[in-house]
Amino acid sequence: MGGALSHAEASELLGAYALDAVEADEATAVAAHLASCPACRNEVDQLRAVAAVLAWEGADAPPELWDRISAGLGTEPPGISPNPPRLAPLGARVSPAQRHRSWVRRSLGAIAAAAAVAIGVLAVQVGTLDHRVGQLSALAAHQGVPAAAAQAMADPRAERVALTAVGAPDRTVADLVILPDGTAFLVEGNLPALPPGRTYQLWGMEHGQAVSLGLLGRQPRVVAFAVHSPLPIRAFAVTAEPAGGVVVATSPPVAEGQVVRT
Amino acid sequence: MTDPRTASDPALVVAIGRFSEPALAEAYRRHGGAVHALASRLLGPGTEADDVTQEVFIDLWRRPERYDPARGSLRTFLLTMAHARAVDQLRSETARRQREERTARETATAGYDIEHQAWDLAVAEQVRVAVAALPEEERRAIELAYFGGHTYREVAAILGQPEGTVKSRIRAGMRRLRAKLERHGVEPAWVEH
Ligand SMILES: [Zn+2]
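Above: the input entities. Below: the structure tokens describing the complete assembly.
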């Protein structure tokens, strides 16, 4: 099959496509059409939901299979390089780049506790570091989010987004720090505490739709989340929702922000 | 997230994005049975279906951001992944040969569907009624495509009908099912916890 499918040609294939019952070349052509046709995308989503209902089975998840899955996760969280760079031994001759790296490392504790001003200065000063992404993810998983967030803030490749209160655009209530691999943090959160049973929820605007990026808790200070990489999201919003989060925001945003290209 | 057992599916996925293994375990507890059952229905019970199930959940662990709550329930997402993988497996040549060798053995152990209790009898009944009400040609085409893992061209050859006819019957039947299930209050949204 050559060339792009028209909407009419694509829609004829949607039923079979939703059931994985098209040839590989047709699947490619339909997928290309879906990328630019919300109506067809919507129909495929609905037909897949119907297929899922047909597949409905009451069987319990086999417990022994969970052991295999759990073992298959490995000891490292996703996206970690298996060979993180080693630190130069104490007293050894270090290259400027390595020295730089250890300087950042030493600063971490201080940064985590430091004021916004100091962090802002660091973000400008620190040069590119090797293998940072894997370390960051590992830090987030093993050493706690604040340390990883502090390191992310010091990463010159990070994009920063200021979230400002809706209705008071000069009041910053939190910053987002987003790394090229999609690892991201909300830092310096200063939103008013919500009552028990409520949570802040972070949203990204993607292809005109609000996509949930994660729950922030009742009083977020530093929270890790993840976004698609490269970042298709240019605008973010925060809403207050019932604890557990919602699929579709139920209230207007309390804070919002946009990626600003520098 | 405090307790995975009380978290919504989207909240579970968020927690999985933060490397929470208890959240993945809970997602598996909720949906692993359906995923495994669908894979087994396509591939037969055994290691192939186990592999597909394992891959689906490890993929959710590695790339949780691929699940977009705006596009449907987590269960639909997982079943869609499982179906695509099972069909890939079915269409690979070596697998096809192995399966043919096995078919004779396993025909005797059919009854797979019977031994599994419906997850929700009311829902299962609605689905059964909706499927039974489909025109016969549409029902057969959908079953051969979805549970047989055949392309619509293969279905056309099996049924001795024109490809274009089968293609439109599949879509018409699926849309009919959707309308019917919605009328009875069975909607994708109800899948959410
Ligand atoms: Zn279209």
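Note for the figure: Chain A is about 40% helix and 20% strand.
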